Every structure is written in C-alpha cells, then in structure tokens.
Amino acid sequence: MRSLALTLLIACTNNHVQTDTNGEDNRETCEPSETCETCETCETCETNSTTETETCTKVLVEDICDDNIDNDQDGMTDCADSDCETAFVCTLPQTIEHATLIDFDGNTISCMFLGNPFDYEVPDCTTYFTAPLEYDPQFDGCDECDRVYTGPITYVEDTCEDLVDGDRPKTASVGFVFLSETQREVWSEELDGSWIYATTLDINAHGSASVTESAELIEDVAECSNGTQNLGTLDITLSFEDLD
To answer: How many domains is the chain built from?
Structure first.
C-alpha cells in the first residue's frame, strides 16, 4: 500500500538510475547540466547546490501482482497488497457455481433382425447435476490452466445411465484460462488424468455464462443387422456463475 511503501533515494546520471538497496549511500553524482527528468523512474528531484548533485525519490508499489514477491517490501504480497486490489489477477473468483445438463432426444430407428424389419423408438433421457467449485491453489495437474476449481457433484436428475459407461463421477474438476474479464477457456479432465480444451465462455456483466454443444449419436445397435443408426441428438449445456 502506498502509505506504507518504502521510499528509496536513487541518483541519476546519463539516464542511469542506481537504487540504495542496503541502507548505504551509494548514490551517484550527476553532471551539473543533467536533471532528474532524464530518468523516467524518478518521481521527485532534489538538488544539493553545495555538491551539485541531484537526487531522485521513488515510492515503490506492488506493481506485479502474481509473482509471489513483496515488490514494495511492505510485508504484503501480490493480491494481499491494496496496490493490487484492482489488478485483473486479483479479481478472479474464488467460488464458481457449475451445472451440467445432458439432454438426449431419441429417434425412431428402422432395424433389420433375422431378415425382418421393425421400428424401434430410442428413449429420451436427461441428466442434470450441479457442483459448487472452489479454487484449489494446490492443484497442479493442469499445466495449461491458470486455475483449477474442484467441488462435489450433486445429481438432481439422472436417467441417462445407458449413455455413460462406468460409475458416475462424484467430484468435478474444471480448469480455466482467464483470457480477459469477459472471456475464459474451459478445460476438462479426462479419465486418464490428462486435460483437454472444452470450450470458450463469454462472461456477461453478472459473471455468468453458458454454452451448449450438440451432436448426433451414431452407433451400431446390437439388435440391428443393418449397420450404424442415428440414435438421436445429444445436447450438453455447461453453465457457470461467479459467486465471489
């Protein structure tokens, strides 16, 4: 914070600035014709008419807010320092409410079985779950992500058991790349622990976004002998809302 920032005396000569980092007077002497204005890092100047030296005064601030360094040496680092309170990296959410809606709209398919045709209506299904995601600063599995958020999954509705192999996941892990205040990439974790890009979100003024992707589900049906069938349309909607 500026009120507690350390003030260092530094001297300038020929566009060079030297800082007094150890408490000793290591200031350089400027030529009488030189002025502190030639040194862009100087904020105020004082001239000693006796020694004909000019001294620059600079107030340090926490100007890099994500390097884990106390840049202004006031005991506060990065986002804990009020100098960084408006920095983009310090406005990222700690909690994100997430919801996934899986909606399958089944088709009526024509099958051949033992030479006999018959129609089969593929049933519709819906799976909907929510997960409050908390920023996990200890998670280092996604090298591409700026942050990873994790949280428990609550299934509100789940009738799509046949579309998902294996056990239902109980925990959600979502990675984000914060491109700007209004855009961020979403990365998802695969079963083998690898991470893949999923989509890019456009964040509205309320800190929320949703995206829907659709695909035709085309597969071989064991009960049919006439090849692959278009079983229906699968819509997946991902929703996110910043809570704090």
So the answer is: 2
Considering the domain architecture, whether residues 55 and 173 belong to the same structural domain is answered as no
Task: State whether 54 and 125 are in the same domain.
Answer: no
Instruction: Write out the H or E segment, with its range, that includes residue 214.
Output: strand 208-220
Give me the phi and psi of 91, to 5 degrees please.
-105, 5
Comparing 215 with 32, which gets the higher pLDDT?
215
Domain-located, residue 70: no
Q: Tell me the CA distances in angstroms from 56 to 27, 43, 48, 103, one per residue in order.
A: 10, 7, 11, 66
- The per-residue pLDDT for range 177-196, each reduced to its tens digit, is 999 999 999 999 998 889 99
Nearest Cα neighbor of 178 from 187, 170, 169 is: 187
Give burial (CB, 10 Å; 0-12/13-18/19+) of 211: middle
> Contact at 8 Å (CB) between 10 and 22?
no
Decide if 113 is inside a domain.
yes
**Shared-domain flag, residues 97 and 47:** no
- The per-residue pLDDT for range 187-242, each reduced to its tens digit, is 999 988 899 999 999 999 999 999 999 999 998 887 787 788 999 999 999 999 99
C-alpha to C-alpha distance for 174 and 182, rounded to whole angstroms: 18
For residue 91, the SS3 value is helix
Beta strands in the chain (DSSP E): 7-13, 16-19, 44-48, 53-59, 95-106, 108-113, 116-121, 125-135, 147-152, 154-158, 171-178, 183-189, 195-202, 208-220, 228-242
Question: Domain span at residue 45?
Answer: 2-60
Nearest to 226 by CA among 117, 123, 121, 122: 117
Q: How far is the C-alpha of 1 from the C-alpha of 88, rounded, in Å? A: 17
